[in-house]
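Open question from group meeting: does this chain pack into something compact, or does most of it stay loose? Before anyone orders reagents, we agreed to write out a predicted structure and look at it together. Recording both the input and the output here so the notebook holds the full record.
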Amino acid sequence: MAQGLFCHCWQQRDVRKISAMELLITALIVGFVVYGLERNNARQVTHPHLAGSTDVRDRDQERLSTELLGRA
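Structure tokens returned:
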């Protein structure tokens, strides 16, 4: 009896190769996405103010101050 692959085992080998390639490609994509997010996060400077103009008065804080002074 000849040794080797029997029946449809060759199909199973191809499926394993494709899934291994898909796993590699998926890992590379995830790696690049994580790298890009980390790079973008490191480049952003944290500001204590909201995005946009920083010379704007905080009217809510002024309103709360006058309300608290009015109650005292």
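Observations to bring back to the group:
The chain has a mean pLDDT of 76.
The two ends are 101 Å apart (CA to CA).
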